[in-house]
Amino acid sequence: MVLSQVLIQEEKDRKIIKKKYNSFNSYKWLFSPLLQLFYPFAALSKSRLERELEFLNSNNDIKKPKIYSFDLNNKELNREYVDGKVDYCEGSKLGKLFSEIHREGYSLGDSKLDNFICNSEGAYIIDSEQAIKTQKERYRYWDVSLLILSAAYYNYSNKTGFKQFLDGFSKEYIYWNDYQKRAIKGLYSMLFLLMPIQHINSLKNALR
């Protein structure tokens, strides 16, 4: 299921990311009411574009791409190309980024690792089409739990790598103490039922 088509285009002296927002056409989205228990996900292409526009246009210090142009009718967005390491970010850099995002009152919804990019300046978010402005703390917990689960699978056979990710993130994420108290309680603890068994001890130690 492809939710968005992303192309890199050379234009004069710069690269541009051209993004086309697709509508959902998969049977998987019959289960969307279940997902809504965790986070108010947007399914329509226009809604996802509008969320991303609001987030990327927000006036703050969150590391995010600049918008060059957009077309609401055709559901298209042209934005800045951010150079860096696409496949993985250090936990400490993401801890700083998540601190800024949550301090500004945003939650991401789709916070898996491949929606971020890292370079010498830190971590940038490169996909924010589920981002919303909200004061509901439980959505922060969802963001962090989904990120941790994503990091666990990225480091599936690397127990040391996952532990280092958790150590770095927990030291830099300013709401970690609050997250520790609530992460294994209630609905959001269900995500950790999917945690690879080899990483459970590292997770338990981080949440003590």
Give a written overview of the molecule.
The protein has helices spanning 32-35, 45-56, 91-103, 137-154, 159-172, 176-182, 200-206; strands at residues 4-11, 14-21, 67-71, 76-80, 106-107, 116-119, 122-125, 132-133. It is α+β, with helices and mostly antiparallel strands and 208 residues long. The longest helix is centred in the C-terminal third of the chain and has 18 residues, at 137-154. It is globular, with a radius of gyration of 17 Å.
Spatial gap, N to C terminus: 38 Å
Task: Identify the overall geometry.
Answer: globular
What's the CATH topology name? Answer: Transferase(Phosphotransferase), domain 1
CATH superfamily: Transferase(Phosphotransferase) domain 1
By CATH, the architecture is named Orthogonal Bundle
Number of domains: 1
Strand content: 15-25%
Sum this structure up briefly.
With 208 residues, the chain is α+β, with helices and mostly antiparallel strands.
Write the layout of secondary structure elements.
Elements: E1 4-11, E2 14-21, H1 32-35, H2 45-56, E3 67-71, E4 76-80, H3 91-103, E5 106-107, E6 116-119, E7 122-125, E8 132-133, H4 137-154, H5 159-172, H6 176-182, H7 200-206
Antiparallel strand pairs: 1-2, 2-4, 3-4, 5-8, 6-7
Helix pairs in contact: 3-5
